[in-house]
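> forwarded from #structure-qc
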């Protein structure tokens, strides 16, 4: 058995995939030598990988006199331990002898090391595919390109300052668009210097994770496998030296009660120790979808600077415009500030503070999406959280 440093893209580097496709970057994996067909002329791989993320958080929902209910994320000021999307995965590849094809597969699970409940495990990106001269083709359960465009152009994902508390979210409840495509077909490739991704999912019938039938785990929001609501998503990326441009689109034919159409555009600039990015999204929905609270525009920007070889500071602002919800005044701003310290290559620690400022009718959270313990609020509330966390990769 050997341990080697590898990007979590299986053996897909030769496809030239866009960075938004990579399951993780600069990660470690335990690689086992395999030769299942007893043929030395076929290249086979098998790896185990994962990330353990835990944090201690202080959170206050700004209840404004409302009753505390920690089971739905309403807290009057409390300290808790949270799992920030801790994962374990298995992946491998099989290069067909004397053919330009490589079979790839992956099984990835989210688990909560801080709880012993029955919903500890949930599916993440899991697929079977083949790398070809025309690109990478996969089938299974996978993040949609629209979501990956957001992941690649923001910071503080999987912390209390997760930007997906605003991006792709309803101003009123847990309805969100940054999901995985179920029963899906996925293609990645390049046309010239443009990196492309296209996905079609046969089923996207989900409910919000704070509604009946929903699941508080990030990986399984009330999934009903009836192939009754399909989804299409695509993205394009282009590198201009230090600048990376990304555009993405998603259409859900039936989700949260109707049709949803959304797009994103983003730009990221890297210069030495500094990195900056900006993102914009627009969501248009049927009037019945989430009461109009998903139909709106949002945008934000971040800046990150490496102060010392192992010390990085970052700041991020996310804004959601007023939605089509009756009554309006549900806009919001999220402000986050964090400091990261790399202890050794596999371990980093951080401290982070975040707050979301809602309009009088807005109920956007602050810790949300991939942060284990959601921090909800009431209409017009300004939730706040401070976190000290660690991430270990293997």
């Amino acid at each position: 058995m050997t341990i080697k440093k590898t990007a979590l893209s299986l053996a897909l580097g030769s496809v030239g995939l866009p960075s938004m496709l990579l399951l993780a970057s600069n990660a470690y994996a335990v690689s086992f030598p395999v030769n299942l067909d007893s043929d030395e002329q076929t290249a086979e791989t098998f790896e185990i990988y994962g990330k353990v993320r835990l944090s201690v958080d202080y959170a206050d929902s700004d209840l404004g006199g409302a009753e505390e209910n920690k089971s739905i994320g309403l807290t009057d000021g409390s300290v808790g331990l949270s799992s920030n999307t801790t994962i374990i995965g298995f992946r491998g590849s099989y290069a067909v002898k004397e053919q330009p094809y490589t079979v790839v597969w992956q099984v990835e699970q989210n688990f909560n090391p801080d709880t012993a409940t029955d919903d500890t495990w949930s599916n993440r990106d899991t697929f079977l595919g083949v790398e070809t001269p025309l690109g990478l083709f996969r089938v299974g359960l996978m993040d949609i390109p629209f979501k990956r465009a957001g992941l690649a152009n923001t910071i503080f994902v999987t912390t209390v300052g997760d930007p997906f508390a605003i991006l792709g979210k309803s101003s009123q409840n847990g309805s969100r668009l940054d999901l995985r495509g179920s029963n899906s077909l996925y293609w990645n490739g390049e046309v010239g210097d443009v990196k492309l991704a296209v996905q079609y999912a046969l089923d996207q019938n989900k409910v919000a994770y704070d509604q009946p039938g929903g699941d508080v785990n990030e990986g399984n929001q009330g999934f009903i496998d009836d192939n009754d609501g399909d989804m299409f998503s695509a993205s394009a990326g282009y590198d201009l030296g230090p600048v990376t441009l990304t555009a993405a689109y998603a259409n859900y034919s039936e989700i949260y009660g109707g049709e949803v159409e959304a797009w994103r555009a983003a730009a990221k600039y890297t210069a030495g120790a500094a990195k900056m990015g900006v993102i914009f999204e627009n969501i248009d929905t049927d009037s019945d979808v989430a009461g109009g609270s998903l139909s709106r525009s949002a945008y934000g920007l971040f800046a990150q600077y490496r102060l010392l070889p192992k010390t990085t500071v970052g700041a991020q602002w996310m804004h959601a415009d007023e939605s089509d919800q009756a009554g309006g005044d549900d806009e919001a701003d999220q402000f986050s500030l964090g400091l990261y310290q790399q202890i050794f290559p596999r371990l980093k620690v951080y401290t982070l503070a975040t707050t979301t400022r809602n309009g009088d009718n807005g109920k956007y959270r602050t810790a949300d999406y991939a942060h284990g313990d959601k921090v909800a609020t009431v209409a017009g509330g300004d939730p706040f959280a401070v976190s000290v966390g660690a991430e270990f990769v293997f």
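QC bot note: The chain has one domain: 2-393. The CA atoms of residues 158 and 370 lie 5 Å apart.
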